């Protein structure tokens, strides 16, 4: 993953551990003080929120344990690979689009980042500018021509 994506994940994890978790623990303590726990909706809701939050924290910790930050200086932009920005044209409607190939944990379509595991990224991998690729998408087969490849960063 990119250094930016790694740093963002670390910041999210720190925020969950230092801000959100203490808030949930306070809510549990406050609800516990209200008496009978068997009929205390606030207590059960706070416990569910704590379990959900702890699950998210464990997931992000596992992602960070297994993450490898890619050294951008070792990448080449002659073919499509992780962290490349690819400009392409849909051959059916001549529409241009630009996506950055990202790790699954960094993928965000609003930011123009698609997962390397997506069908489009899989079809583009190791191709060069000028190549035409066919991608099987839910709507059928899409033909894309790679216009340019650059390193994003």
Topology:
Layout: H1 3-32, H2 41-66, E1 84-90, E2 95-102, E3 113-115, H3 119-124, E4 132-137, E5 140-151
Parallel strand pairs: 2-3
Antiparallel strand pairs: 1-2, 1-5, 4-5
Helix pairs in contact: 1-2
Radius of gyration: 22 Å
Mean pLDDT: 86
What general form does the structure show?
A: elongated
Beta percentage is: 15-25%
Order of helices and strands: HHEEEHEE
Please count the beta strands (DSSP E, at least 2 residues each): 5
Biggest sheet, open or closed, and with what strands and sense?
Answer: 5 strands, mixed
> Total number of helical segments?
3
Assembly status = single chain
Largest sheet: spatial strand order: 3-2-1-5-4
Distance N terminus to C terminus?
Answer: 12 Å
Annotation keywords:
153 residues; alpha+beta; 24% strand; elongated
Characterise this structure:
Strand 1 (84-90) and strand 2 form a beta hairpin. A 5-stranded mixed beta sheet has the order 3-2-1-5-4. The two termini are 12 Å apart. It has helices spanning 3-32, 41-66, 119-124; strands at residues 84-90, 95-102, 113-115, 132-137, 140-151. The protein contains 3 helices and 5 strands; from the N terminus they run H-H-E-E-E-H-E-E. It has 153 residues and is α+β, with helices and mostly antiparallel strands.
Gist?
The protein has helices at 3-32, 41-66, 119-124; strands at 84-90, 95-102, 113-115, 132-137, 140-151. The chain is an alpha+beta fold and 153 residues long.
